[in-house]
Amino acid sequence: MASAYGNVSLTCPAAALQQPRVPTLLSAFLTLLNDRLSESIVFPLLPFLLASFNADGRTLGLLAGSYALAQFAATPLIGALSDRFGRRPVIATALQARCWVWACSPSP
Question: pTM of the entire structure?
Fold first, then answer.
């Protein structure tokens, strides 16, 4: 007995559930790895980087706090864009924008 609600079928072949989605998983893995590495590599080095600018502990706290606040504020926006346009276009656009910003930034 197969019943359906809207466009969702309650019966699904077992083969369709077990198909590996390597590109999707790879994209998600690389995006999360990039996010975690950016925090785990930069944050421990921040005191040494700030020492060259004669900054104090308050500056370090403000930088770390502003990063967390910006991530907190941008997450709902990114989520809404993902719901509207899909994950792949939003992630691809965000990564492309990040690459452009990195490429256009002046070298020290």
Answer: 0.51
Q: What is the mean pLDDT of the chain?
A: 80
How far, in Å, CA of 47 to CA of 59, rounded? 9
Residue 47 contacts residue 60 (beta carbons within 8 Å): yes
Task: For helices 87-104 and 22-51, give the axis angle rounded to 10 degrees.
Answer: 30
What single-letter DSSP state applies at residue 95?
A: H
Task: Write the DSSP assignment of 1-61 as a string of letters.
Answer: ---EETTEES---HHHHT---HHHHHHHHHHHHHHHHHHHHHHHHHHHHHHTTT--HHHHH
